[in-house]
Design brief:
Blueprint lengths: L3 E6 L5 H10 L3 E7 L3 H11 L2 E3 L2 H4 L7 E4 L6 H10 L3 E5 L6 H13 L4 E4 L6 H12 L5 E11 L9 H17 L5 E7 L9 E7 L5 E7 L1 E13 L3 E5 L4 E5 L4 E2 L8 H14 L8 H20 L3 E2 L2
Parallel strand pairs: 1-2, 1-4, 2-3, 4-5, 5-6, 7-10
Antiparallel strand pairs: 7-11, 8-9, 8-15, 9-10, 11-12, 12-13, 13-14
Helix pairs in contact: 1-8, 4-5, 5-9, 7-9
Length: 315
């Protein structure tokens, strides 16, 4: 089977993991990496035996490169993704996809016009435990969905430089809520603020409501002295809990608590494998560009809700 020729733009904290995973997957052929830091670009390229670039436009001229991961800082994600799409490359752009929803809409339009696959790096959807929860919600194995509560807290991450906690971490859980419910929220109410960092919000408490009465609660911050990544989903008949870091899943009903066993797999490899298969095998994507746009619009509504201290009604 022909391997998909891939490249990575941005090889900092997360981009180097994309490069490693592409190199290890049997379905992809890592051909090049690009980073504005010439020394880092060359070091990563040497590590994986590929060509290094500091100018993505030059790299994108390589016709053997068919798909690209965009892993730059958040404020330039859309700029780099647009270059790749206009060069005829399929794109996986890391969250939050763009600096704002207008940029995200431009990416969607460009991908559609050029018949290219565009997806967003919502890695959480590829965690097997979350997929089991989504299946249980969809099939009503836990009864009717009542609410979901996500907690994603940690200390200030050194890699952050250009966005706050909403677009960096909470956006994962915004997308998870859409994945679980299959719906867009009708209202948003949020409290955000700065405790230690002047430029961006470093904590957020978010409430999303839906048309049939169910709700979602998201807590995200960079203030907690230890890292926590959890999800609790309450149904009318049972509760499911997931620890994202250990991938441990539990199911509680009136009679028992079960902890199903399943193989743990690196979600990034599952994500990139699926990205490749969507291109080579025309598989239905688990995450679309539209999912990224929706999450970004909700993130913008969250920021507006906090700034104005009011409930925001969504279209």
């Amino acid at each position: 089977m022909k391997k998909l020729g891939v490249a990575v733009v941005g090889t900092g904290f997360w981009g180097k993991n994309h490069a490693r995973a592409y190199k290890e997957l049997e379905s992809t052929n890592l051909l090049a990496i690009c980073d504005m830091n010439a020394e880092r670009a060359q070091n990563i390229a040497n590590q994986f035996g590929v060509k290094a670039y500091t100018d993505s436009k030059e790299m994108l001229k390589d016709k053997e490169i068919e798909a690209v991961s965009i892993c730059t800082w958040s404020t330039v994600l859309a700029q780099e993704a647009l270059k790749a799409l206009e060069a005829g490359k399929h794109v996986l752009v890391e969250k939050p996809m763009a600096a704002d929803s207008k940029q995200a809409e431009k990416l969607l339009k460009t991908a559609e016009e050029n018949n290219l696959h565009l997806t967003v790096g919502f890695l959480t959807r590829f965690i097997p435990g979350l997929q089991r929860i989504q299946e249980a919600v969809a099939s009503k194995k836990i009864g009717e969905l009542v609410c979901a509560t996500a907690k994603r807290v940690t200390q200030w991450p050194e890699r952050i430089g250009d966005v706050g906690v909403i677009k960096d971490t909470a956006i994962h859980d915004i997308d998870v809520m859409h994945y679980l419910t299959g719906e867009d929220p009708t209202t948003v109410f949020a409290k955000t603020g700065n405790k230690r960092h002047r430029q961006f919000e470093d904590y957020a408490q978010i409430m999303l409501t839906y048309k049939d009465g169910k709700s979602a609660f998201i807590e995200s911050n960079w203030l907690t002295p230890y890292k926590t990544r959890t999800l609790t989903v309450t149904g009318s008949d049972a509760i499911m809990k997931l620890d994202y870091m250990t991938q441990e899943l539990s199911i509680e009903d009136a009679n028992a608590t079960l902890q199903p066993r399943y193989a743990t797999v690196e979600p990034l490899k599952l994500e990139l494998q699926h990205f490749a298969e969507c291109i080579t095998q025309k598989k239905k994507p688990i995450v679309t560009g539209i999912d990224g746009l929706k999450a970004l619009k909700i993130a913008e509504a969250i920021m507006a809700s906090s700034a104005n201290n009011q409930v925001i009604k969504l279209e």
